[in-house]
Design a protein that fits this description.
Blueprint: E1 2-7, H1 16-19, H2 39-51, E2 75-80, E3 86-90, H3 96-104, E4 107-108, E5 112-113, E6 124-125, H4 129-133, E7 135-138, E8 143-148, E9 152-156, E10 158-166, E11 168-171, E12 174-177, E13 183-187, E14 194-199, H5 208-216, H6 222-229, E15 237-242, H7 247-252, H8 260-263, H9 277-285, E16 299-304, H10 310-322, E17 328-332, E18 345-351, E19 368-371, H11 381-394, E20 403-406, H12 414-425, E21 430-436, H13 447-450, E22 480-486, H14 502-514, E23 534-537, E24 542-545, H15 555-559, E25 562-567, E26 580-581, E27 590-600, E28 605-609, H16 614-617, E29 622-625, H17 632-636
Parallel strand pairs: 6-9, 16-20, 16-21, 17-20, 21-22, 24-26, 24-29
Antiparallel strand pairs: 1-22, 2-3, 4-5, 7-8, 8-15, 9-14, 10-13, 10-15, 11-12, 11-14, 17-18, 18-19, 23-28, 25-27, 25-29, 27-28
C-alpha cells in the first residue's frame, strides 16, 4: 500500500485541545518505531512530540500501569486510577518467589534470558508449534494465557474477551495496556479475521519475570505457570483470553445458516492464513501521519470505490484517534454498509469505545439519525444531501471533537458529484481518497480540482480570464488531500464466501438490531410471534412509504409484516377518523425501528414490536416504510407454531411474468452515448 499526499494546504491553526493529546491517559509519544514512517510522517511525528509537553487537557490512559492481581494475594490496592487500573504495592514475598529463583540464574540485565529457550522468540505470526509453546490453558477456569514478544501477531477466528495482564498489545489500531478493562473481540467468518500484535513496553526498568510471575499466579497452575515463565523476556506482553457469550451471538446461533457464529470461542480460536485486518492495519497505519497535524475539530472525509477497504480504514482511524482523545464523532453517509445502525440510515454518532469487530457487533443508538429507507441514494439525490445537512446542523458547532465522514462506494457519475457537493457543504479539513491497482477510479479530489468541478447541487465559482491576474482571484478551498493505494489480496472484489456479500452484511446488521428484542438473561430465543406488541391507534401516527409510490388503498397492505422506521414529525398529526397517510417522504429524526406485525382495521390499531424504550416511543408520530426488508429467517424460523407460518407462503410461482425481482442493468449504454 502506498500513499501520495497530493496537497497540503493548512486552513487554520491547531486548537490547544487537540495538541494536548497526552493528558490523563498518558500514552507514550508516537515514535517512528510504531508506524512505518514516510517523509511526511517524520515531520508530523516531530511536531507531535513537541506538543505533548504542554499541559494536558484530555483524559488519557495511564502510561505505567501496574500488574492486575487479586487484592487478597501478595498485591494490594493503594489507589484507583483512570480506566479501571490501580496502583499496587507488594506486601511480602509469595510462593512464586521459588519459581523466580529457579530462573534468576539465567537472567541477565533487564529480565533478558540468554538460554536456548528464547532462541526462537522472534517477530512474526504465532501459529502451529510456536503458538502451542507460548500458550497455557486452564480448563477449570476456562481461559487461556498467552505470552507474546514484541511485534509477534496472533491472527484468529472466533470471539473472546481480551485482557492485557502485562505489557501492551494492539488490535485494529487501538492500544490495550495492562490495568485496563477487558475488551470484546469479534472475528467472525463473515469478515476479515482480527489480529493481535504485541508492542514494546514503555518502561525499560521493570522486572519482567518477577512481575509476570506474580500476575500468572492468579490464572494458572504452578506447572503451567513455570512453563510459561520461560517465555517471558524483556518487552514481553501477557494476555488473557476468556470465552464470551452475548445475547447477539446467542440470537444469531438460533438460525441454522448462522450457527457458526456461536461455535467459536476464545479457547477455540484458530490462527488463519487468510487476509487479516492486521495486514490492512499495518499498511494503513503508515498513512495516518496526518493525525499528528490535526486540530481538535478536524473533519476527515473518507471516500473510495466499493470493496477498497473504507470501512476497515475508518475503524482503524477511529481506534487510533481514541488512543489520543476521549471521543470521536462519526457521520454516516454510506446507506448500504452502515457502521452503527441498520442499513438505509444516515446518522451522527459519538464513539467512545474502540471498534474491535464488524459493524453488526457494535450496533448502537446514534445521537441523531434519519431513515432514508434505501441502500442507495440514486433515486433521490436531493433528499440524501438535505438529510446529511440536517444531521450536520444538529451537531454542536462548539464541539472540538474530530469527526469522520463515511461515504458510499459510488464514485462515478452522480456519485462523484455528490462527493464534490459534500466537500463544499461541510468544513472538510482532510480528504482521504482510497483506490487500488495504481489508479484512483475517479479524479483526485484536490482543492485545485474543486475549483472547476460540478456537483449535483453546487457549481464551481464563476471566474473570468482576467481574475487569474487580479486580487479578486478566489483561492482554492483549503484542506489536506491524501491518496491511499490499497494493495491487499482481493481488493476491488466482493467476497464470494458465505456471509461475505454486501446484502448478507446488511442482514446481519438488521438481525443484530432485532436481537435487542430478546431478554438479556440466558434462555431460549423467543420467535417473532411470541413477543408482545404495542397497540398504536391509527389516528396517533402518520404512515408513509419513502422508496416508491403506493396508491393509498394499498398502503396498509404494503406496511403489514414489514420493517418500519419510528420517526418524529415536527408537525402534529391530525386525523379525520382513519389512517393518516403521507404523500411525500419527510426528512425527520428517526429514533429506531420496529416490525409492524399486524393491523386491526375494526379497532383501528397497529401492532408494533420494537426494542425502543417506551419513554422515547411516546414521541413517535410517524411510521416510514422503506426498501429495507426483514431477513427471511426472521419469518421462516418461528418454532412452536400450529398450522401455517404467518406471513410466509409456498403457494407462489416464479414462472409467472413479473413474479420475480425486477433487475436493473446499469451497464447498458444510453442511446445518447452510442458512437461517442
Amino acid at each position: 500500500m502506498k500513499v501520495n499526499k497530493c496537497t497540503l494546504v493548512k486552513g487554520h491553526a491547531k486548537s490547544q485541545k487537540w495538541r494536548d493529546v497526552r493528558g490523563k491517559r498518558c500514552r507514550r509519544p508516537i515514535s517512528s518505531s510504531d508506524l512505518k514512517s514516510t517523509p511526511v510522517m517524520a515531520t508530523m511525528i516531530k511536531e507531535h512530540q513537541g506538543c505533548v509537553k504542554k499541559k494536558p487537557s484530555v483524559k488519557r490512559l495511564k502510561n505505567k500501569a501496574k500488574a492486575v492481581c487479586d487484592s487478597k494475594s501478595e498485591f494490594k490496592k493503594s489507589g484507583t486510577q483512570a480506566n479501571g487500573s490501580s496502583v499496587l504495592t507488594m506486601d511480602d514475598e509469595s510462593d512464586d518467589s521459588q519459581d523466580w529463583k529457579e530462573y534468576s540464574q539465567s537472567i541477565h540485565g533487564n529480565g533478558v534470558e540468554t538460554s536456548g529457550d528464547m532462541a526462537d522468540a522472534c517477530p512474526g505470526r504465532l501459529e502451529g508449534d510456536a503458538l502451542h509453546y507460548c500458550t497455557e490453558r486452564d480448563d477449570q477456569q476456562n481461559h487461556a494465557v498467552l505470552v507474546m514478544q514484541k511485534d509477534q501477531t496472533l491472527c484468529f477466528r472466533g470471539k473472546c474477551f481480551l485482557t492485557c495482564l502485562y505489557g501492551r498489545v494492539e488490535v485494529m489500531g487501538f492500544t490495550i495496556e495492562e490495568g485496563q478493562q477487558s475488551y470484546p473481540l469479534f472475528s467472525p467468518a463473515s469478515h476479515c479475521p482480527l489480529t493481535i500484535r504485541a508492542l514494546t513496553n514503555s518502561d525499560d526498568t521493570r522486572d519482567d519475570r518477577r512481575e509476570a510471575a506474580a500476575i500468572l499466579r492468579k490464572y494458572l497452575t504452578p506447572e503451567s505457570r513455570k512453563k510459561l515463565l520461560k517465555r517471558v523476556m524483556s518487552h514481553s506482553s501477557v494476555i488473557l483470553l476468556e470465552p464470551m457469550e452475548t445475547p447477539l451471538t446467542h440470537f444469531l446461533s438460533s438460525f441454522t445458516d448462522l450457527s457458526e457464529f456461536q461455535k467459536c470461542s476464545c479457547t477455540g480460536c484458530t490462527q488463519t492464513h487468510k487476509r487479516s485486518t492486521f495486514d490492512s492495519a499495518i499498511a494503513y497505519s503508515a498513512h495516518l501521519s496526518f493525525i499528528g497535524d490535526m486540530d481538535g475539530c478536524a473533519v476527515i472525509l473518507v471516500c473510495g470505490t466499493k470493496n477498497v477497504g473504507k470501512s476497515t480504514f475508518i475503524r482503524i482511524l477511529i481506534n487510533t484517534l481514541l488512543n489520543h482523545t476521549t471521543s470521536v464523532d462519526y457521520l454516516e453517509g454510506d446507506l448500504g454498509q452502515t457502521e452503527f445502525t441498520p442499513p438505509g440510515c444516515l446518522s451522527l454518532s459519538t464513539v467512545t469505545e474502540p471498534l474491535l469487530g464488524p459493524p453488526f457487533t457494535h450496533q448502537r443508538t446514534p445521537e441523531h439519525m434519519i431513515y432514508y429507507g434505501q441502500s442507495s441514494c440514486e433515486s433521490d439525490l436531493d433528499r440524501y444531501l438535505e438529510s446529511l445537512k440536517s444531521l450536520w446542523r444538529r451537531r454542536s458547532q462548539s464541539r472540538e471533537t474530530p469527526i469522520i465522514m463515511n461515504t458510499m462506494g459510488w464514485v462515478k457519475g452522480f456519485g462523484f458529484q455528490l462527493l464534490v457537493d459534500m466537500i463544499r457543504f461541510f468544513p472538510v479539513s482532510h480528504v482521504v481518497q482510497l483506490s487500488h491497482s495504481g489508479t484512483t477510479q475517479c479524479p483526485a479530489l484536490t482543492p485545485e480540482f474543486l475549483r472547476t468541478a460540478h456537483g449535483c447541487q453546487t457549481q464551481p465559482p464563476a471566474q473570468t480570464a482576467i481574475d487569474e491576474f487580479t486580487e479578486s482571484h478566489i483561492p482554492p478551498r483549503s484542506y489536506n488531500h491524501f491518496i491511499v493505494q490499497s494493495d491487499f489480496q482481493g481488493v476491488g472484489r466482493q467476497g464470494t464466501a458465505k456471509h461475505q456479500r454486501t446484502n448478507e452484511h446488511r442482514e446481519l446488521s438488521l438481525l443484530a438490531y432485532l436481537s435487542q428484542l430478546q431478554c438479556p438473561d440466558p434462555g431460549p430465543v423467543r420467535p417473532l410471534h411470541s413477543l408482545t406488541p404495542y397497540q398504536v391507534p391509527h389516528t396517533a401516527v402518520a404512515l408513509g412509504v419513502i422508496h416508491c409510490e403506493v396508491v393509498p388503498t394499498h398502503m396498509l397492505y404494503a406496511v403489514n409484516a414489514s420493517l418500519v422506521g419510528l420517526c418524529c414529525l415536527a408537525e402534529k398529526v391530525t386525523s379525520r377518523g382513519g389512517p393518516v397517510l403521507l404523500s411525500q417522504a419527510p426528512i425527520c429524526p428517526c429514533v429506531g425501528f420496529g416490525v409492524l406485525r399486524g393491523i386491526d382495521m375494526v379497532q383501528g390499531l397497529y401492532f408494533l414490536v420494537t426494542p425502543v424504550d417506551p419513554s422515547i416511543l411516546c414521541k413517535v408520530n410517524c411510521l416510514l416504510l422503506g426498501a429495507i426488508s426483514l431477513p427471511s429467517c426472521i419469518l421462516t424460523t418461528q418454532p412452536g407454531l400450529e398450522g401455517e407460518t404467518p406471513y410466509v407462503t409456498t403457494n407462489y410461482s416464479f414462472d409467472l411474468t413479473g413474479a420475480g425481482k425486477l433487475r436493473v442493468f446499469k451497464g447498458l449504454t444510453r442511446p445518447s452515448q452510442i458512437g461517442m
